[in-house]
Amino acid sequence: MAEYTTHLDDLDVMIRLGIHPHEAVPQRVRLSVAMTVRYGRAPSADRIDEVLDYDFVREGVHALAAGEGFALQETLVDAVAALCLADERVIAVRVRSTKLDVYADATVGCEVTRTRA
Known about the structure:
Helix content: 10-25%
Radius of gyration: 15 Å
Shape: elongated
Largest sheet: 4 strands, antiparallel
Number of helices: 2
Strand order of the largest sheet: 1-2-3-4
Distance between the termini: 19 Å
Oligomer: single chain
């Protein structure tokens, strides 16, 4: 067995996220994902078909951002975690979301860790 942590960090998307009336329009949200991935053996041929291709996560996040949006950051990070865990090689995932423009002097965020049952 071989385990690796695959990262997709600082992915900025425009998404409807929040409970306040001014959040009915898309706002900038930064997402970072860390997936613990388990393979039967370490990659030996230096080819993408031996490992998890993180393009599906990026594309999935963009699809979520294009949807109707979320009221809560907790719901958003859970949706991204479920997307990652859809690949059976992902045994754990940590997802962090950060609203970048809520306050002039701070960002606000949420993080979740999920593991395969």
